[in-house]
Amino acid sequence: MLEIHGLDAWYGPSHVLHGLSLEVRAGEILALVGRNGAGKTTTMKAVMGLIPKVGGSVRFLGTELLGRPAHARFPLGLAYVPEDRRIVPGLTVRENLRLGLLRAPRTIKEGAAIAEIAETFPRLAERLDQIAVTMSGGEQQMLAIARAMIARPKLILLDEPSEGIMPVLVEEMGRLFVSLRDRGVTLLLVEQNVEWALNLANRAVIIDQGAVVHESSAAALRADTEIQDRYCAV
Amino acid sequence: MTSAFAALDLELIAMQLFSGVALGAVFVMLALGLSIIFGMLGIVNFAHGNFFMVGAYAGVFVMERTGSFWAALLVGPLMVGALGLLVERFLIRPLAGRSPDDPLLLTFGLGYVLVEGVRILFGSDGLPFATPEELSGVADLGIGYFPIYRLFVVGVVALVLVVLWYGLERTRLGLIVRAGARDPEILRVLGIDIQRLWLWVFGLGIALAALGGVLAAPMRSVNPEMGNVVLGEAFAVTVIGGMGSLMGSVVAGLLVGIVVSMTALVAPEMASIAMFAFMALVLLIRPQGLFGKPGLGV
């Protein structure tokens, strides 16, 4: 579904990704783990077209993404939940959700889509007309996920969704991801919470210093504590 | 005797207050465009006053050809707005990703180009712009007689404000604009071509300045330098209201109009510096302006 080949990325003069290659397969949850600074967030941003200087190839459903403007991705069915959530200040919960529908397929009707989201996220349903940034961090994270999935994308990139969220919400989020996968949505999950991510994922990829160093089923990596310690220890 | 004088004073003050609102209405047009462009594109448009001037000349141009003030009022700002689209697309956009000083210097230089361009096309001398016949004369407001044209200006600006408010708060495009002012990157992630949005926002801001120019033309003299004076005024209003705040532009525009007009009543020689004294006072109390957010960098 998403094929990344020989991806290079630079932040100013510093070379962050070094020929990174990985594949996200349709219908799976792929966990992308590794130390802080290994290049996980950069990989996602590069896929989303948010890093000016990149090289290599990123193909989504056969379409080459590199060289296309950032806004060309969402209409293809590629959604992104950034690490800092990016809930827009000054807008209500409902307005933030409407932002997720601006480039939705015409078959998706705003009222029905928001009602469906409200059913999935009862906490948001109660707060639709509240200014979104006044909610708790966990609720804002739920909103960021809701905004990314409301237009029914095919693939969602999630950057550390469990970060700073209370455990009960993290569990709830895990169930949501599994149910999304069961409905055919593919997820690429970047996580520091390795144990949680490996429990949800089908497969796992470890990156270190901007390149892939390990690739296996999530179960195999879960069992291999030596590799986990070598590449994922903080 | 005493009470008669008091009544007269009150009447005078009320009339002067209304003059201030009419003066402020033009400031509002200027400050709105300046503020929208700054809030969305992060550009301090030093050519804004000159686009106001070009608007007045576009009004003269259309009026000479059609003989209709209404055509001038409508077509003039559209012509200048289209010029604004070209400026954004071919002059400002190529500077994207460079130092924020570059667009500022560009608009600064562009201002001079506009002045010289108008001198070449229309000459250096001022041009007359007669108040349209159907809007000349005075109206009895109950408290006194007031020029109809100034009432008209206040009405047009009020109408523009209502349309802008509705567009921003009640439409899909307005939602995109409000979100784009706060976080352009997430809009790109959600599939919005933010550069196309900036193009139209710049054009809108310029068209508003030009509309201010056409509206002001019968009240001020139309000459190539008229934009330089109003630029200072527009900046003062925008800073008082808070850079990037639309509500701030409206409130500050009217306040400044009233302050200038009231100062003219008690100390006419102080009128032109009154707005800057007012600006200094506001900034002493609220450095971010009346409606500005603290910490907003230029």
Automatic annotation (TrEMBL), chain B:
Primary subcellular site in the record, as a coarse category: membrane
Subcellular location: Cell membrane
Sequence intervals crossing the membrane: 12-34, 69-92, 104-122, 142-168, 197-215, 235-258, 265-285
Membrane-protein topology: Multi-pass membrane protein
Pfam families registered for this protein in UniProt: BPD_transp_2
Keyword Cell membrane: yes
Keyword annotations from UniProtKB, A to Z: Amino-acid transport, Cell membrane, Membrane, Transmembrane, Transmembrane helix, Transport
PANTHER family: ABC TRANSPORTER ATP-BINDING PROTEIN (PTHR11795:SF442), BRANCHED-CHAIN AMINO ACID TRANSPORT SYSTEM PERMEASE PROTEIN LIVH (PTHR11795)
UniProt family annotation: Belongs to the binding-protein-dependent transport system permease family. LivHM subfamily.
Protein name: Branched-chain amino acid transport system permease protein
Organism: Methylobacterium goesingense
